[in-house]
Amino acid sequence: MADMVSTVGGERVHVRSLIGPNGDPHVYEPTPSDAQALKNADLAF
């Protein structure tokens, strides 16, 4: 998802992926910095 958003948005967007390309969303546990990033985000996918 992050790659697609980055490709479409280009230089107009800053993309931060909370789960890396080889990460497993089933075992992902958010960190306090992840929560802060979501709080400060204008948009989240």
β-sheet strand percentage: under 5%
- Mean pLDDT, as a whole number? 94
Query: What is the number of helical segments per DSSP (H or I, 4+ residues)?
Result: 2
Main beta sheet, described?
none
Low-confidence stretches: none
The counted number of beta strands is 0
Structural class: mainly alpha
Radius of gyration (CA) equals 11 Å
Coarse shape: flat
Helix content: 25-40%
End-to-end distance:
8 Å
Number of domains: 1
The helix-strand sequence is: HH
Pfam family, one: ZnuA
GO molecular function, one term: metal ion binding
Protein name: Periplasmic solute binding protein
InterPro entries: ZnuA-like
Would you give an account of this structure?
The protein has 45 residues and is mainly alpha-helical. The protein has one domain. It contains 2 helices and no strands. It has helices at residues 2-9, 32-40. The N and C termini lie close together (8 Å). The mean pLDDT is 94. InterPro entries: ZnuA-like. One of its GO terms (biological process) is metal ion transport. It comes from Pseudomonas syringae pv. japonica str. M301072. Residues 15-45 are annotated as: Disordered. GO terms for molecular function: metal ion binding.
Task: Name the descriptors.
45 residues; mainly alpha; metal ion binding; Periplasmic solute binding protein
Task: Give the SSE map.
Elements: H1 2-9, H2 32-40
Task: Summarize this structure briefly.
The chain is an all-alpha fold. The chain contains two helices and no strands.
